[in-house]
Write a structure and sequence with these properties.
7 helices; about 15% strand; single chain; alpha/beta; globular; about 180 residues; six-stranded mixed beta sheet; 6 strands; Protein-Tyrosine Phosphatase, Chain A
């Protein structure tokens, strides 16, 4: 019995030593879940264009802030801002691209500022398909969360960045900073 106890103790000590001595270079990739058509990371839903019922459900489910990354005249399906306000959701429309169709650094910083100032609130970030929302998240992970461009890109792909040309533009944008 003593030899079994000694063997078990030795195995535990070796396992503990291996666990403590392994590299702590673990990727900081966030945990991703789903909500409706959105991918959820932390307190953020990264999503395509929501319908009125989706916004209503989001409100019931605890979302408090909506950030629309589409341009002012890009969506004509319904008055999203009025719907959000009627639901008592804080609403921001901050286009991902400027009027010259370039990535708008001021917009990216403004979005991240809203996110960072509302870490205690559930936030619904969207564009038309979810690509720009995922592209914004790539920039946020790199600039504010300390992930490498490679790690941030992997995460962005998992949450909706499917357009290779947009991905390349974002990576080029980040590399030029």
């Amino acid at each position: 019995m003593k030899s079994i106890t000694a063997l078990f103790t030795t195995i535990l000590m070796v396992a503990f030593y291996i666990g403590c001595s392994t590299s702590h270079n673990v990727e900081k990739t966030p945990i991703i879940t789903t909500y409706e058509e959105a991918k959820v990371v932390s307190h953020l839903a990264i999503a395509p264009q929501p319908t009125k019922p989706t916004l209503s459900k989001a409100k019931k489910d605890g979302y408090e802030v909506v950030i629309n990354l589409r341009g002012k005249n890009e969506f004509k399906g319904y008055d999203e801002e009025a719907t959000a306000k009627m639901l008592n959701l804080e609403y921001h429309q901050i286009p991902f691209f400027n009027k010259d169709k370039e990535i708008d650094e001021r917009s990216l910083n403004e979005i991240s500022k809203i996110i960072n100032n509302n870490k205690d609130k559930m936030i619904y970030v969207h564009c038309s398909s979810g690509n720009r929302a995922a592209a914004w998240y790539l920039t946020h992970l790199y600039q504010y969360e300390g992930l490498s461009i490679e790690e941030a890109t992997k995460t962005a792909r998992k949450i909706g960045l499917t357009k290779a040309p947009l991905e390349k533009r974002v990576i080029k944008f980040l590399n030029e900073k």
